[in-house]
Amino acid sequence: MPKMKTKSGAKKRFKLTGSGKVVYKQAHTRHRLISKPKQMKRKARGTAVINDSDARIILGWMPYARKGA
Of 33, 46, 51, 65, most Cβ neighbours within 10 A? Predict the structure, then answer.
């Protein structure tokens, strides 16, 4: 059997936590920040955890990501 391919966009955008949850960087923090409210920019700092239904899809794109390790 040939190796399965990881989606290169997914490996750049998502990471797994130690418990196997999928983490991503919040959107709306790159450009045109003057027109965005302060509260929106503040809430978009750091990373966030994706909900389970979407995480199942993303883990399908990353077959060699370690789940629960």
Answer: 65
CATH number (4.10.410.60, 3.30.70.1660, 3.40.50.1000, 3.40.50.10490) of 8-61 reads: 4.10.410.60
- What percent of the chain lies above the pLDDT cut of 90? 93
Domain range list for the chain = 8-61
Q: What is the pLDDT of residues 10-34, one digit of tens each?
A: 999 999 999 999 999 999 999 999 9
pTM equals: 0.81
